[in-house]
């Protein structure tokens, strides 16, 4: 099978996810299979050797023979112990490494510059796929060797019983295939139900996680009780879905155990009857009963492996959906998206200056938008319809492909560049930009990779007034930040996010409402410092803030998806009543 990297260019099936996960570690899986087979064969030989000891030593009173066969039994125990120890280690290594590999593949697809994998999925649902589902698929690297060893034990037990008694051996050989067929039939509904319940549980968990991450905002709106009820409802849904999946698994395993018990009862009954009429010896009877009891383990193992395979297939289907998700935008002319400096000879992301142009852009509320931003200009874009600003930001960020029109950097269409090349030249800081787990400083230097407060980082934090924000924090810039920055206030989060964007220092920077959560005085300070910090760099402010618009070189106004005014903020405040109403609230 050709390995699929999961870039959305190739459709990946659930079967390919499972097979690829196993094939990637086939060496360890093969070694684990051999060793665990040795362990199970050794386990199967224990009752056989005990029967031999009874017949050849205990029944005859031969002490020498007793010592010899006890030594053979001890050697068997040593062999099976060694085999299990190292076989389980190989299987667990394959399991853990496959788990890490699958999570990496899912993360790589989600981080692909072309996007698309996260569309229609809650963050909590994506996390569930990357963690729980990846684990369910990867664990097949443990269960396949274990199931193979169980099958080997069945073969050895059948051969031993054939030597003890032909009827008992035939009973095993003829009875096992129907039993395994029954296990497979019972497992099919579990596979279907498991996939559906995992999906419901993931969605409910995602909703609950989103509510928790936004709890500060909800409290500020006085929506705490409603959010608590919604969270409780989501939790109940997740719990119900998990319980239904668990009941399905319990029913499956219970059915398997019942079938195994009945099968073993028949074996014990036949063996007892043969011992009564003298067809087998006492040692043979002990071996037969011991083998019958031993077979409970391998048969249960096969049943559990069947349940795990059913779950793995369902989880692999969800992973395959992520890996096969179509990209939101094209790969660019070079098709790689890997090297922004060689993606297009007409674009130089190290030049420090770049002109931005939008021609005939149609997407959502944008209706043939034309816009030019000369290199080094600070432009304000005012959209009374917030969805127009959002649509423009998403198109510029290449989160989506516009229905029509082009976006050009220094005359080169961004659709001719790899997404990575575009983003090295044009950075869009979204209104709802999230912070990451780590420290404040880690977040600010995320794009630069410096990891230390160099002069550029200090300047960016000062321009965004993040330096003022961290003064109130217990450990300053080294203060830990929880997921999505929920441990910080809204104003602190915005200033840190703005500092991160400024520290990246792209040739073209688009800021979407970067100061909506800060006070008026701080906003004025940020506006003045922002203009100074971005001198010589192209900057676009999608905002209705009068403080930010006051420091721009020019302002364009969007209505009905097009530019209806293009002049300075001062002239618009003087001559345009609608503009004045929008920016002054």
Characteristics:
four-stranded antiparallel β-sheet, single chain, six-stranded mixed β-sheet, disordered N terminus, 20 helices, alpha/beta, elongated, 12 strands, 585 residues
Folded structure, characterized:
The chain is α/β, with parallel strands linked by helices and 585 residues long. 63% of the residues lie in helices and 10% in strands. The chain has helices spanning 14-23, 26-58, 63-110, 123-138, 140-164, 166-213, 215-220, 224-276, 282-294, 296-323, 386-396, 419-425, 440-444, 455-463, 466-471, 490-504, 520-533, 546-549, 569-575, 577-584; strands at residues 356-363, 366-373, 378-382, 404-409, 412-413, 426-429, 438-439, 480-481, 508-512, 538-542, 554-559, 562-567. The strands form three sheets. The protein has a six-stranded mixed sheet, sandwiched between helices. It has a four-stranded antiparallel sheet with strand order 2-1-4-5. Helix 17 links the parallel strand 9 (508-512) and strand 10 (538-542). Helix 5 (140-164) packs antiparallel against helix 6 (166-213). The two termini are 61 Å apart. Mean pLDDT is 81; it is low at 1-5, 216-221 and 334-351.
